[in-house]
Design brief:
Number of helices: 10
Keywords: Plasmid
Protein name: LGFP repeat
Pfam families: LGFP
CATH class of the largest domain: Alpha Beta
Number of strands: 25
InterPro entries: LGFP (IPR013207)
Number of domains: 2
CATH topology of the largest domain: Beta-Lactamase
Organism: Nocardia farcinica (strain IFM 10152)
Length: about 475
């Protein structure tokens, strides 16, 4: 067997390991100089040589392959060749994106990316991930190793944009997006839903997705969400807290959430005269709100001129009042109470239909997309004007004859708005004068737009339907 030394290192590199070392560039490659002679591995079967930049491992069944850097560290966490990962089958492989790397071993593959690190993935989960497109698919790179679930029965890997779960009885299935948001809030596989039994598939409506679980299903259409559990097992704290993310903001184009600050601090005022004049006018607006019974309009205006840009959370009691308003002066908008009631009726009807279909107690959760609305009271209109509302209702229906179903219900409303002003928009007199002041304040860099958000109280109802 041919051997060779690489001065100044005194150690010999031999045979197939030497051939592989020379292929990688020898001491001028990433492995650098040898730091050991050829060593017998603990299994008494394979061999290795150690180098400053990594190791080369050899066995009769797998040949010689270098393992270096984070791949070597991750492999070592699982016992090197003596662990379930076994010997390397390949060198490090550069992936098609030109950034990530993969190395294949007898019992698992290890993937690496600069943003996610090195993680092992194997078996049915790896097969499902590769089926979905691997690192170039919707899930992206793995962000964890394979993890045993708390029940000891299943396994999962997290990825950049989702998860894959496996159990012996359900197989491997990907869960992502809003379906994952709801399922995770419920408690993943330990929840009443149990393990996923399918991937998300296209629903009846264009753009919709539905995913089946052991004891229910979750349906999404853009920001609309409908969840089903049969048999129902009571309400959970997360039920009515569901709502779409606060971005993008449907009131503006382009989106302004995160808040659009492109006009902020764009007008120079070297002598401060414009700032002084604007602050005086802003003080008059603030006085008007305070003197005319607009406490929330006053507080939001003051927050605007605090110039922090911090989010502002409205109280549940205030939103209970605002979202109960039954009319609006904004043409083409449905008032908030109408949107909230429509969500309630839809959820009740869906729960009754499901209990009639299955003959079991059924729980349905329906969360609406963000819908633009506005109320009628002066304080509300002059506080946020038009805003985005989501209503979420959870209903448990008991089987019974038609019209006799016992119903329990929980409902909560969520809102958000970007507090900013656009020149030319009609905000309604007499607050209209505030618009020019606010626009100028932002451009001078002394008033910063911010996100207004909040959730109502959870409202309960029971009865017969």
């Amino acid at each position: 067997m041919a051997c060779q030394t690489f001065p100044p290192s005194p150690f010999q590199v031999c045979g197939a390991i030497l051939d592989k070392y020379l292929q990688t560039g020898g001491p001028n490659g990433f492995l650098l100089f040898p730091k050991s002679d050829e060593l017998t591995n603990p299994d008494g079967f394979g061999r290795r040589s150690e180098f400053l930049g990594g190791n080369i491992y050899w066995s009769p069944n797998t040949n010689a392959h270098p393992v270096a850097h984070e791949f070597l560290t991750k492999w070592g966490e699982y016992g090197y060749e003596g662990g379930f990962i076994g010997y390397p089958l390949t060198d490090e492989i550069v992936l098609s994106d030109g950034i990530g790397r993969r190395q294949e071993f007898q019992g698992s593959w290890i993937y690496w990316h600069a943003l996610t690190g090195a993680h092992n993935i194997q078996g049915a989960i790896r097969d499902k991930w590769l089926e979905s497109g691997g690192e170039r698919g919707p899930l992206g790179y793995p962000s964890t190793d394979e993890v045993v679930t708390p029940d000891g029965n299943g396994r999962f890997n997290r990825f950049e944009r989702g998860m894959i779960y496996w159990s012996p009885s359900t197989g491997a299935h990907a869960v992502s997006g809003r379906i994952l948001t709801l399922w995770s809030a419920a408690g993943y596989e330990t929840s009443h839903y149990g393990y996923p039994t399918s991937d998300a598939t296209a629903g009846a409506e264009p753009g919709s997705l539905i995913q089946q679980f052991e004891h229910g299903s979750i349906y999404v259409l853009n920001d609309y969400l409908r969840a089903l559990l049969v048999p129902a097992q009571g309400f959970a704290s997360y039920d009515t807290g569901l709502h779409p993310g606060y971005c993008p903001d449907p009131l503006n184009s382009p989106p302004t959430c995160p808040v659009d600050l492109s006009d902020y601090d764009t007008v120079p005022d070297p002598f401060g005269t414009l700032v002084t004049a604007n602050m005086q006018k802003a003080a008059l607006v603030s006085t008007y709100f305070a003197a005319n019974g607009r406490p929330n309009a006053h507080e939001l205006w003051e927050h605007y001129y605090r110039n922090t840009g911090d989010d502002y959370v409205l109280s549940s009691a205030l939103l209970d009042s605002w979202t109960a308003e039954e009319s609006t002066d904004y043409p083409g908008l449905r008032p908030p109470a109408e949107l909230v009631n429509a969500n309630k009726v839809e959820a009740i009807n869906a729960a009754i239909a499901e209990t009639a279909r299955t003959g079991q107690t059924a729980k349905v959760i329906i969360s609406t997309p963000w819908q633009v609305t506005a109320g009628i009271s002066n304080d509300q209109v002059q506080s946020i004007g038009r805003y985005s509302l989501c209503s979420t209702t959870a209903v448990i229906a008991q089987p019974a004859n038609p019209g006799q179903n016992p119903i329990e219900l929980r409902q909560q409303t969520h809102i958000y708005d970007v507090y900013d002003y656009a020149a030319g928009d009609d905000y309604g007199n007499p607050a209209q004068d505030a618009v020019a002041v606010a626009v100028e304040g932002e451009k001078l860099g002394i008033a910063k737009p911010f996100l207004v958000l909040g959730s109502s109280s959870v409202h309960s109802w029971s009865g017969i339907r």
